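hiii, so i know i said id send this last week but things got crazy w the move. better late than never?? heres the sequnce for the chain we talked about at the cafe, plus the structure i predicted for it. fair warning i was half asleep when i ran it
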Amino acid sequence: MQWYPRTFHLFLFFFFSAAPVFAQEPAPEVFYFIGANGKTGVRTAEGGVLIAAEYTLEDADTVQPIAGRLIYLEKKDTSGSRFDRSGYYFNRQGRFLFHPYRSELGPDPLEEGLLRFVEGEKIGFADRTGRKVIPARFDYAMPFEYGLSFFCAGCSFATDTSGERKLLVQSWGLLDKTGKTLRPPGVLKLPQYPLVTDTLVRKFPQPVYSRPEQALVARLRAVPGLEDKMTSTWVTPPDSVTYRIVERPTKTFPYYWIKAYGHSSGVIMTLEHFALPAEGPAIRRYWPAGDFVEELRQ
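okay and structure toks below
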């Protein structure tokens, strides 16, 4: 199996890419700018200051307009919170929305259409437009995988003798993408760092797709040699591959976002991502961490 780290630059791809797959409703263009103090802010196309130059952003592109519905900036965290609050999300009108959850690898990327945010001392989930879909009520929650997220209550962070920060968990619960608690902490017998497994997902209802959606998934599965491409770097190929629609088209994101999963010895892991328009032949292929690979031909 292969694991892909979630890095800052790959995270920016999900929200700021100007690739056609993230085309959306027309919106006024806004740009990063560097102030006289060397800090980063955001301006309108006419030069008006939308967000004051009080922040930082490594390699901020001050020439191209900011893509996506959200604007990301950073500032030194002085909150004293157990969570890193150095990341800031704003909407395109310059209003602060929330702090994304941050690990040592950077701010949280979208996983299955949702990213984690921090509010108070709790974690919640927001979508790609910045809407808070699941309120911040968890002491800690993992990113969604196969429609499921593990969460814990009463868990905490501790730093070991090597300086590594670790999560201390007594028991895990499980929730779905609507925020519904499927199992409260303590019901499931799970290891310290749980994985999504075939046995686990069989305990819960699976998504039902319309006929057009079934045809869409079937079209993706029928691409010649696709599964061989996805598993070529695996030492041992997975036992099977499944496809799951994790986002449906909206006015601001007119694409189906489909994930391919490898099932190996009962464990489910992400293989790749695909963006398909509701109509039309295009299929765009992405690595698990977000890099565009190719447009597939059928």
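btw The first strand starts at residue 30 and ends at 34. thought thatd interest u
miss u guys!!
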